[in-house]
Design goal:
alpha/beta; Adenylosuccinate Synthetase, Chain A, domain 3; 22 strands; about 30% helix; globular; binds inosinic acid
């Protein structure tokens, strides 16, 4: 039995989809614990390829129990759309192995409207660059105790009351942003029309996951977004509105923190960010273009080109600290092929001197935090066919060893290409030590 939390160590888009997909083979239960349809994972099983935003990544595996935990915000239309898409592909047995927390909050059309209006009307430099999926406003409703929860679908009268109250709360904002306020009655009726399909999925998912752990099952807690987008630990205010770190896995899945055996952080071999906000190692030159083009760095939900930069070790050390990483999964190492010299940021020069940790309080004053780079030798060889460390060029091995030494976290897995097979597995937390490196 293993309970493994897998979280992004950077600004999201670390290539979690592939890694989580590899580990799902070993997990009997997969739990999404935070965020909502702002995430986008591409799943591949055999010839079946599917992009999911809400459904946990085990969904294409007929024996895996998939749980949408109470830390999530769930757009019912997106969820039903994904279930329908799976149905069209022949996965009709979902009902028995898909559970939706009755305490997860619902994203309703007014959340999407407010998110979109805010982003499109924000003064220059103030837009967050959100995915416009209604995430922020839905979590705002949760925090101001005016939200609609999935469990309310069981009680039509209460649901109507909650939708009324939430919409009344948003009406002044919608009007002030130039939008038109939707009808509460129409929204509640549409929700109640979906209820017969959603109510059978409702469970006390905390109890369900706890029972699975007690029964000795392997559980994967599947993170979304990344540490630097976390509401508490990220580059606030340019963050998402949920708890994307390992601590959030305990809250969002409804299990005690001591039930989690292993925490894995996923990091790219370089850094990307989509949306606005600080990014101290951003490149904006030909090397940055190389990373974007070779790494196909375009947002999976919005299609936006991602900003690209060198690996930021102070940020990775920070992520290792706030999450308690036991190990790292290093992705997209192959994208570095062809660059003659690789720079890695190892510290920041600040008015207080050189610091090894990410100086979060200076992030909005980039002139006060100068990245200190070391240069490492690059390599020209393609990496895709390597299955053990020894098959990598020595410069690539040195890059991995440098990262391990600097972060203090061992690398458990190295991804050397987009395909599942293009992976070097050094340690599998679900089954113990894999083939020797
Ligand atoms: P929101 O989560 O849509 O509110 O967006 C807030 C910030 O998080 C924006 O900078 C988004 O681009 C970013 N973001 C949200 N989800 C993801 C993700 O899955 N990958 C990368 N960035 C994300």
């Amino acid at each position: 039995m293993s309970v493994v939390a897998i979280v992004g160590a950077q600004w999201g888009d670390e290539g979690k989809g592939k890694i989580v997909d590899i580990y799902t083979e070993f997990a009997e239960v997969v739990v999404r614990f935070a965020g909502g349809p702002n995430a986008g994972h591409t799943l591949v099983v055999g010839d079946d390829k599917l992009v999911v935003r809400l459904l946990p990544s085990g969904i294409l595996r007929p024996a895996t129990l998939c749980v949408l935990g109470q830390g999530m915000v769930v757009d019912p239309d997106v969820l039903l759309g994904e279930i329908d898409e799976l149905g069209r592909r022949g996965h009709v047995e979902l009902g028995s192995r898909l559970a939706l927390s009755d305490r997860a909050h619902l994203i309703l059309p007014y959340h999407v409207l407010v998110d979109t209006l805010r982003e499109t009307t924000a003064p220059a430099g103030r837009a967050i660059g959100t995915t416009k999926k209604g995430i922020g406003p839905a979590y705002e409703d949760k925090a101001r105790r005016n939200g609609v929860r999935a469990g309310d679908l069981r009680h039509p009268a209460r649901l109507r009351e909650r939708v009324d109250a939430a919409l009344a709360g948003w009406a002044p904002t919608i009007k002030s942003l130039g939008g038109s306020v939707p009808s509460a009655e129409a929204l509640a009726s549409a929700l109640l029309a979906s209820a017969p399909r959603l109510v059978p999925l409702l469970r006390d998912t905390s109890a369900l996951v706890s029972e699975s752990i007690k029964a000795g099952k392997s559980v994967m807690l599947e993170g979304a977004q990344g540490t630097l987008l976390d509401l508490d630990h990220g580059t606030y205010p340019f963050v998402t509105s949920s708890s994307a770190v390992a601590g959030g896995a305990s809250v969002g899945a409804g299990i005690g923190p001591n039930r989690i055996n292993t925490v894995i952080g996923i990091t790219k071999a370089y850094t990307t960010r989509v949306g606005a906000g600080p990014f101290p190692t951003e490149l904006g030159n030909a090397e940055g273009d190389h990373l974007r083009e070779v790494g196909a760095e375009f947002g999976s939900v919005t299609g936006r080109p991602r900003r690209t930069g060198w690996l930021d070790l102070p940020a990775l050390r920070y992520a290792a600290r706030v999450n308690g990483f036991d190990g790292l999964a290093l992705t997209k190492l192959d994208v570095l092929t062809g660059l003659s010299t690789l720079k890695v940021c190892v510290a920041y020069d600040t008015p207080e001197g050189r610091v090894n940790d990410l100086p979060l309080d200076l992030l909005d004053r980039p002139e006060l935090m100068k990245p200190v780079y070391v240069e490492l030798e690059g390599w020209q060889e393609k990496l895709e066919s390597a299955r053990v460390l020894d098959e990598l060029p020595s410069a690539a091995r040195a890059y991995i060893r440098f990262l391990e030494k600097e972060t203090g976290a061992p690398v458990y897995l190295v991804s050397v290409g987009p395909r599942r097979s293009e992976t070097i597995m050094l340690h599998n937390p679900f089954v113990g030590r894999a083939a020797a490196p």
